[in-house]
Amino acid sequence: MSKLSGTSIELPVFDIFKPLNPSSLSSLSLACKEWGFFHITNHGVSKDLYNKLYSLSTQLFKLPLESKLKAGPSSSIKTYTPRFIASPFFESFRVSGPDFFSSAQSSALLLPNQQDSEFSEILKEYGSKMTELSKRIIEVVLMSMGENFENKFYDSEFRNCHGYLRIINYTPPANVEEEEEVEGLGMHTDMSCITIVCQDQTGGLQVRSKEGKWMDINPCEGTLVVNIGDLMQAWSNGKLRSSQHRVVLKRFVNRFSLAFFWCFDDKKLIYTPKEIVGEEHLRVYKPFICADYLKFRESREEGKFEKVGLTVKDFAGTEG
Ligand SMILES: O=C(O)CCC(=O)C(=O)O
Ligand SMILES: [Fe+2]
């Protein structure tokens, strides 16, 4: 395995619920175009909420594999993804909205002694915070794209979005050389409109530059990472960038993260409004139904649901 570390990148940080002035909007627009990644503060996830979620999730991951597999891919629940699917080091539980409580309950029931309802309550709170944040992020991203775009397009295009959370535990391999790093999650793009990631102090999230260089997104206390996904890249006619990214692990260091995906409704037709395409530009995506793209990705990835070579460009791009 090769050395995987990159160079660090300084992403802009936005106080998400404050009105954004013209200079913040242009810096947001630049970040979405160049990197498809930025940081947010004032997100409403308190340390206490995070710590409770961390500690209960850790207990869930510590359960014996046979218990976790009761919520696994071959059970009726299908919220647990064991190791060796996305990568040998990655395992996760999925919690879907809008009813995060009952979705969490299906995995939480594996926990002993009434911790299940505490866990589900916490996930309900986290899910509702992420929902509120996602709506606000879409609003400010639309604002950064053009005058009044949030009023023109939010209701007609984004009102039926929905979200789901992936709680991820990365267990690093022990048998690697010192200083060596391995991929906990391989290079991929997200199939969302936007994703909100809470990475712990270990770091390891990397974004690939347009030139193909891996850049470290260092953990930044009190902030969350936001990235643009494929659905938003297609909807914006490529004006917003869904960047390839991955997670690298350090020897002996366990990594915990929360990734929240905010997506279009499955039945939505993704077709860039003409005001966004602009008169002087061509459409770079054919219109497509959201679910058809998700199916395309699933069928190509042979179960490795996030490890991709193919993206929305291969699916609906109009340029060879
Ligand atoms: O674990 C992380 O920090 C990011 C995970 C991620 O990129 C994903 O689940 O799509
Ligand atoms: Fe991702």
UniProtKB/TrEMBL annotation:
PROSITE patterns: FE2OG_OXY, PROKAR_LIPOPROTEIN. InterPro entries: DIOX_N, IPNS-like_FE2OG_OXY, IPNS-like_sf, Iron_ascorbate_oxido_reductase, Oxoglu/Fe-dep_dioxygenase_dom. Keywords: Iron, Metal-binding, Oxidoreductase. The keyword Metal-binding applies. Transmembrane segments: none annotated. Residues 161-264 form the Fe2OG dioxygenase domain. SUPFAM superfamilies: Clavaminate synthase-like. The keyword Acetylation does not apply. Belongs to the iron/ascorbate-dependent oxidoreductase family. PANTHER family: 2-OXOGLUTARATE (2OG) AND FE(II)-DEPENDENT OXYGENASE SUPERFAMILY PROTEIN-RELATED (PTHR47990). This is Gibberellin 20-oxidase-like protein. It comes from Ziziphus jujuba (Chinese jujube).
